[in-house]
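Human: Respectfully, please carefully check these tokens:
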Amino acid sequence: MTHDVPLPPRTGLPTSEERLRAALRYAQGGAEPSVAPGAPFGAPGRAMITGLAALALHCFAAAPSLLDLDRIDVLVPELGESPGPGTRVPLLSGCAYTSAHLVRTRIVPEPEEITGLPVAPVPRALADAVAQLADADEVRGLLTEAVRGGHCEPQPVVRELTRARLLGLPHVADAVESLLAEGRALTEGLLYGMVFGQGLPDPCWNVELRVPGGPHLGAVDAYWPDQAVAVEIDARTPRAGAEAAWDACTHKRESLEQFGVTVIHVTPEKLRETPAQQAAVVRTALMAAAEQPPAEYVAVLPR
């Protein structure tokens, strides 16, 4: 169903804020938009700006400006039977035209407040934007900027794309590979920064461990051979085959520990937020190695 929703009377074209507020007012049944983190499911305050408009508010350089958008996506709780993927509602003011597109969801994220308006967090806004884009370069640009610009980690983005069933689209799958590669490179940089910044001894970087004349034990991101201590970045994402990947990770850790190798898992979040604490864990393991029985010899090969 489509309804005309006039913007406040004024001379000239409506501002971006007026267009955003008009879209939210429609989604909230005429109520003034506000951030309401504790509102119950389906309450008016749970509607929030999402999609490209939200990414523009999050200051994404790859997103169009608010003035260039002819439609504003608004995320609203899915109540009862949904009329479809979304409802477009024209918002008219003189000769200016903008449409509000209602994106219905059963899982309502906590909104972030930007310029006094409720805005979907970056991972959800990305998923809603990508759902409307068919250009591979546009999708790749948005996903790459999310990580490179420090807006979020790859994992929550992939989680939202998986939930929206978008990973089956070739142009989205390719962009996700770029996203994960970008996230991997940045996380490795954080690991280097932790080791050198916290004064840890220099390890062997990105190596494969194996039993001499025997099977490969697996790859690790950093390895101190004299102490048999390994660090591995834990950056798993909820993608197809995740359960098998988890089993393989567990098997590798058990195999390494059987040969006396201490394996320390670190996450991108911990490396970014608490590098000193992560370095202390590694330092403790290095010191404890002197009191442990000697580990079996493990060959170290370049990855």
Notes: The chain has two domains: 5-132, 201-302. Residues 17 and 302 are 55 Å apart (CA to CA). The first helix runs from residue 16 to 27.
